[in-house]
Prior knowledge:
The structure is a homodimer. A six-stranded antiparallel sheet of chain A has the order 2-3-4-5-1-6, with helices on one face. In chain A, 24% of the residues lie in helices and 39% in strands. Chain A has helices at residues 27-30, 33-47, 99-110; strands at 15-23, 51-58, 65-71, 74-81, 86-94, 114-122. Chains A and B meet through strand 1, strand 2, strand 3, strand 4 and strand 5 of A and strand 1, strand 2, strand 3, strand 4 and strand 5 of B.
Amino acid sequence: MPAGVAAPVAHAPSGQHVLADLNGISAEKLSNCAALETLLRGAADAAGAQVLFSHFHAFGEGQGVTGVVLLAESHITIHTWPECGFAAADIFMCGNSQPELALALIKKALQPGSAHVHTARRGPPVF
Amino acid sequence: MPAGVAAPVAHAPSGQHVLADLNGISAEKLSNCAALETLLRGAADAAGAQVLFSHFHAFGEGQGVTGVVLLAESHITIHTWPECGFAAADIFMCGNSQPELALALIKKALQPGSAHVHTARRGPPVF
């Protein structure tokens, strides 16, 4: 663990998983691999989550991007199709992080014309 | 691209996202980082998906694991809590891959006592 980097904090397994299908986004935004990685790492920060690792893959010049930010709280992913103006983003956070703040930052940056957002509760059964 | 590795194939953005909350799993299985990475890469193969990259993080001896397999078709992730016997797995695949075959392999290996599985359709609006 490098100096100055806090050890990950253990979180309870219950959490929220936000599935956001984002439409009508400019192709340029959806093919910019470096900008998408910066955006999703910023979205983790905005939500109060701790980034462990990130990896983003560009399928080629002007093509889509697939990427993940692994968190102490679970993950954020994005998969983009510039040719369709479409991105599928996932924000899965356990503990006390606020996935809605991550989604707000992503929407502010990508400016989708429309969004279909579904939130699922994750975790062991509640008795 | 190394010799012998096929270039990723472009897939249509519509797909299925399987959210599987798996309970009653032995702590030993849920803290074995290397075995979980091998399992999820095998699950991608079983589904007919193409692995681009994987990264798995162990939180510490006997503790949970968080990991991702990025696919040409989207991703598989897992987050585990050995202390609760719980794992949250996601299998998100676009194109013609078969996420149900990936889930079957994961369940066969982890042997959960119970599972709550929710499948969401992802993609642009269908007109």
